[in-house]
Amino acid sequence: MPPPIRTGSVEGMTAILLIHGHPFDHTLWDPQAEALRAAGHQVVAPDLRGYGSAPATGDVTLFAEFAADLAAHLDAAGVHRAVVGGVSMGGQIAMEFHRQYPDRVAGLVLADTSPIPEDEAGRAGRYQLADRLLAEGVAGWADEVLGKMITPYHVVEKPDVAAHVRRMMLATSPQGAAAALRGRAQRPDYRPTLSEVRVPTLVLVGAEDPYTPVADAELIHKLVPGSELVVVDRAGHLPGLEQPAAVNAALLRFLGAEW
């Protein structure tokens, strides 16, 4: 028989692995990492292969490879079991990590992400974008999508946040981004494994996310027994930067910290 479903907060767990999305780096999680460390939690927030300070390798980076890299980061930090959180592509990598290393997952935080694999058009779009980034660099595409990564009004109202998002995108290696996009095109269907999750799970989503809308979060919430769903108002694809106080409160409550 499967182990009983645990619901509620992840009491007593102090280690949390935070996985950034594409095309960003570990600083995407800075507001949450600061709050979690201040509350006494151990935070492991590495750059994914090909992003930030982590060098790119090869033409394709499969999600299983990202998961193995993250397991090595936990080993280096002396952590066997952690709450695993990810946003967007990072959320999908968190699902892959759970698929590969379920015994190392004490809880899940899945933010602005989707468990559904790419269809034929989606795969083609990932490959086309990979080719474009290699040919043109990241800057032109970054300008096009800034107002989707965060809400258009936050581009104006929160210029520091917009500048942070743009800086991360511009610092991304085209080779690393392209390899990840090709791997993302090949990702599996995570719906079956989500239904087998038996650890506390927090599902977060920006109310105005154009990439992975609330319906995707509701699907994850429905699939994962006992999960909690938090919809963050006045936020798009990156609520952790757009509404850090609300996201921090949800995380700290989930982790059993005082608030």
UniProtKB/TrEMBL annotation:
Keyword Cytoplasm: no
Keyword Kinase: no
Keywords: Hydrolase
GO cellular component, as recorded: membrane
Gene3D superfamilies: alpha/beta hydrolase
Domain of life (superkingdom): Bacteria
A molecular function (GO) term: hydrolase activity
Domain AB hydrolase-1: 15-243
Protein name, as recorded: Alpha/beta hydrolase
Organism lineage string: Bacteria, Bacillati, Actinomycetota, Actinomycetes, Micromonosporales
